[in-house]
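The following record pairs a protein chain with its ligand, iron/sulfur cluster.
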Amino acid sequence: MASPLSMQLSVFKYLLTQKLKGNERYPLVMMLEPLFACNLECGGCGKIQYPTDILKKRMTPQECWDAAEECGAPLVSIAGGEPFAHPQIAEIVEGLVARGKYIYFCTNAILLERNIHKLKPSSQLIFSIHLDGLEKTHDNAVCRDGVFQTAVSAIRKAKELGFNVMTNTTIFNGKNSDEFRRFFDGAMELGVDGMMISPGYAYEKAPQQQLFLQREDTKKWFAATLKDWRTKGWDFNHSPFYLDFLEGKRNYDCTPWGNPLRNVFGWQKPCYLMDDAGYAKSYQELLDSTDWANYGQKSGNPKCVNCMTHCGYEPSAVNEAFSSFGKFVELVKDIASVSKWRGRQGEPIIPVEFPISKPAKREPVAS
Ligand code: SF4
Ligand code: SF4
């Protein structure tokens, strides 16, 4: 909803083509992890616990481009690890843009300001900045003080330079609903082009297992926090159907092939979140060799029963919207009903929750 118009049109055309071809399983967003190394060690992260020899691995630009072309998804989400720690990340992005891909560049923003000159503003490039709440909450989530201030400063800088910028927020257990309502107000006033949210996935490798929400708690939390998001005018970069799903108003099973993951090992089976079935050499092999009946909420797989993440269920919501003309009209009407953001009534334009009161801390990680 919040993404550039050219991107929305491209995705619309792609989805229509898949439907007309009668394709049941197709990719929507290719997740790309060109490295696992990161300059943070967040308590809820399940991506950085590899031995040093694996953390040193980097996908080559050619591997990234070949994977994107073979997969065919119109959107590529570059994550990791921290993409800015990859020495060839600008070349990778440039090559994906040249191949017509729209890119979410997921970053914790620590290295963004010093590296931003390597990238060009484009309607095909969106920075997706990791922000898991207001200052104290975010710094606790990433286990380091000062990161919130650095991220907010980087968002301002990227906006000034003409880049598209969104926030990317993971919701963990015990988070205060009112605080996150203030957070969404603050992000809107900061002028971001959209906000992404998802409950966290209970990675077995994550050091802080108490952080993860159970399914019913997820629904309660989102129902309370998002109860009036349409009238508030919060600009979420999600299908409203997916937000309904998070609030417990719609029920889907997972579509793990919709957001497939390519990383330094290959194509992860079955999904972005777990590697239970190993790796495939190509997206086609992933489709053909995965026993999909073993995954998703309905399968009863204990690793899936509490999962409501965007990478498993946003493609399911998109599928519903494109399942019939009536459903598509329902989606369009829903999007049209979302109010325009008008700021917080009677409150200052610069949000009090997002001050830059001190210089942003610089980290010693080089790239
Ligand atoms: S910034 Fe992202 S990749 Fe890095 S440790 Fe945190 S969650 Fe993991
Ligand atoms: S429900 Fe889907 S996205 Fe979630 S862990 Fe299972 S297969 Fe992966």
